[in-house]
Amino acid sequence: MSNNLEFDARELNVIIRALKRFSQFDHKMQVSTILTLLEIALAERNNEEISVQDIEKRVGLQSGTASRNTYYWGEGHRENTGGHEMINIGFAPNDRRKRTLRLTNKGKAFINDVVKGVTENG
């Protein structure tokens, strides 16, 4: 195993720039909050349904944290700021206990912008 860093600095700068796009919402944002939105975007891109319970599993969160993260990107949560309207939170037609998550047009535009910045500069 080498003790040298074996990557091009430009590649790391691409990641840094992408993460800075998220910091515009909260400069202390946790990685799990970022991953929540990215997992919703990935599921939608793959034409898959995704729920809060799926976020719990995919990101490795407790139920309350997954709910707070989704409300942060959606309509907001009473315990934190949020309310960025990047996602819609609905109910599954066959199980009203299950909350389904979809990107809004604003969320799609933001994710497209982040991905475009990574792919154009990578």
From TrEMBL:
<protein>
    <submittedName>
        <fullName>Winged helix-turn-helix transcriptional regulator</fullName>
    </submittedName>
</protein>
<dbReference type="InterPro" id="IPR036388">
    <property type="entry name" value="WH-like_DNA-bd_sf"/>
</dbReference>
<dbReference type="InterPro" id="IPR036390">
    <property type="entry name" value="WH_DNA-bd_sf"/>
</dbReference>
